[in-house]
Amino acid sequence: MAQEDVFKKLVAHCKEYGYVFPSSEIYDGLSAVYDYGQYGVELKNNIKKYWWDSMVLLNDNIVGLDSAIFMHPTIWKASGHVDAFNDPLIDNKDSKKRYRADILIEEHIAKIEEKVTKEVEKARERFGQAFDEKKFRETNPRVIANQTKIDELNERYSKALNAMDLPALRQIIMDCEIVCPISGSRNWTEVRQFNLMFSTELGSTADGSTTIFLRPETAQGIFVNFLNVQKTGRMKIPFGIAQIGKAFRNEIVARQFIFRMREFEQMEMQFFVQPGTELEWFKYWKEIRMKWYQALGFGAENYRFHDHTKLAHYANAATDIEYRFPFGFKEVEGIHSRTDYDLRQHQQYSGKKMQYFDPEKGESYIPYVIETSIGVDRMFLHIISAAYLEEELKKEDGSTDTRVVLRLPAYLAPVKLAVMPLVKKDGLPEIAEKIVHELKFEFNCQYDDKDSIGRRYRRQDAIGTPYCITIDHQTREDQTVTIRYRDSMEQERIKISRLKDIIFEKVSIVSLLKKL
Ligand code: ATP
After folding, report:
1. How many angstroms separate the alpha carbon of residue 415 from the centre of ligand 1?
2. Do 387 and 249 belong together in one domain?
3. Judging by beta carbons within 10 Å of its beta carbon (0-12, 13-18, 19+), is residue 332 exposed, middle or buried?
4. Residue to mutate (ligand 1; options 260, 289, 311, 381; most atoms within 8 A of CB)
């Protein structure tokens, strides 16, 4: 099945099984805004806990913060968002569709890169063991021609984007003959700047109100509280402040479900270090963060770093961690070495010192900052697309059947176990209810007695419940139940008294955190 079809099915699955709903659906929805349903909210909370514990619990020099969404408007002036948090937009005059000029160009470059990759893969198949990829890339005329095109375009594009030279961006679109995917035409408008921040009014009277912004990132709340936390927590550099919270961006083109939203959630950690040590810490956090993803067990080959060649003016190193989504490798997290830019700007705009007195060096300085910034919703999409599987099953009579299963890591799954009486009589429901009552203090349990046992298993597979417990007549005799494992579909008979220990070991976040 084409990856696009898999993605469509995944989106439908999320809605059908209570994971994600379009916002305001009865009013036909609100573009790029989504609500999380009964299972979605559990998965989201588990993702947040995994991140929070890996930061705040495992590191005694990282503490948390929960700063307000509304902040003094000058903060966004100081941070550069008022003047520079812009995307270049372009409209197609025929389809009336709006695009981000930078994304049109990046997608065009990615298409040429794809051609090169295909050429290399074809050659790898042809030459087998003897294939020398480096030599092939250096000598194959088609690969060389395409690679030259990519390099030239990248250089032109970086220059135009860094200088926000809008006519130059448009010229690249024209020269590359990029067409609108809807109308197929090259009838483009000029490129214009578009600020991504939402604004609103604070205060009730017309002349007494102030225009404020909905924060486009959580990071600034950390910067402006840097000294509060440092002083009250008696933190010594190096130390970090972690925060999870909502952010808002009026994205020009919102696509790909919850990948790009207008209201979303971020998990950001700003790590304050001594000037001059930042690149070592940057390297350190790159490794730590990659490990965090790989501990989930979805395969190391599905992640990669994308180091930035064009750096923001305040950064001296930056990389993205990308995951292989059904629509290709895309950013899930950004790791940036932001120098002392933000604290220095706030010092200048607020007139308050943003310095740290280093007792070991006996001097004061503005710390440098390494930032790790991940979107909760994007991580959610990563997890759910990695977990979604349409599996073909061979039945005993030789025929085939299919099941949809969410192979969520057990510690992230919304429901840990479903408890099912085989029939709704003979005292079996009472035993099942008793088990739920005992285990519900530890795990999210579900009691289910509707439909045949096979259909109940399928329903739990589709939700991603790792364990199903079935109570049958034998349970009454010997206090044993059947435990059925979601991924292997194997079943085992175990004593009720062992249930808690068996499940705890598998679903506890501790075993995941210990891998880090
Ligand atoms: P992109 O290039 O995809 O727009 P970005 O580089 O602007 O992302 P950052 O400002 O570095 O993103 O934000 C950090 C993280 O926040 C991203 O890696 C992503 O996971 C998340 N994020 C950013 N914008 C959105 C959005 N509109 N919807 C959902 N998540 C987002």
Report:
1. 29
2. yes
3. buried
4. 260
The per-residue DSSP string of 53-117 comes to IIIIIT-TTEEEE---SB--HHHHHHTTHHHH-EEEEEEBTTT--EEEHHHHHHHHHHHHHHHHH
User: Total structural domains in the chain?
Assistant: 3
pLDDT digits (tens, 9 = 90+) for 273-331: 999 999 999 999 999 999 999 999 999 999 999 998 778 878 999 999 999 999 889 99
CB-CB neighbours of 3 under 10 Å: 12
pLDDT given at position 205: 66
Nearby residues of 361 by Cβ (< 8 Å), 6 or more positions away: 274
Distance 318 CA to ligand 1 centre (A): 14
Give CA angle at 472 (468, 476), nearest 5°: 125
CA of 140 to the centre of ligand 1 (A): 37
pTM (predicted TM-score):
0.89
- Residue 64 is encoded by which pair of tokens? 């948390």
For ligand 1, whether the C-beta of 333 sits within 6 Å is yes
The domain boundary residue, chosen from 357, 378, 400: 400
Domain holding 150, by residue range, is 86-195
The pick from 378, 380, 383 for probing ligand 1's pocket by mutation, whose C-beta has the most ligand atoms within 8 angstroms, reads 378
Residue 336 CA: nearest ligand 1 atom is 11
User: Does one domain contain both 118 and 215?
Assistant: no
Same domain for 162 and 54: no
In angstroms and rounded to an integer, the radius of gyration of the C-alpha atoms of the chain is 27
What confidence score (pLDDT) does residue 6 get? 86
Question: What tokens were used for 340?
Answer: 């002392």
Same domain for 215 and 313, yes or no, is yes
Low-confidence ranges of the chain (pLDDT < 50): none
In the reported structure, the alpha carbon of residue 375 is separated from the centroid of ligand 1 by a whole-number distance in angstroms of 6
Q: 214-258: per-residue pLDDT in tens?
A: 999 999 999 999 999 999 999 999 999 999 999 999 998 777 899
Burial bucket for residue 343 (CB in 10 Å: 0-12, 13-18, 19+) = buried
Domain closes at, from 141, 160, 195: 195
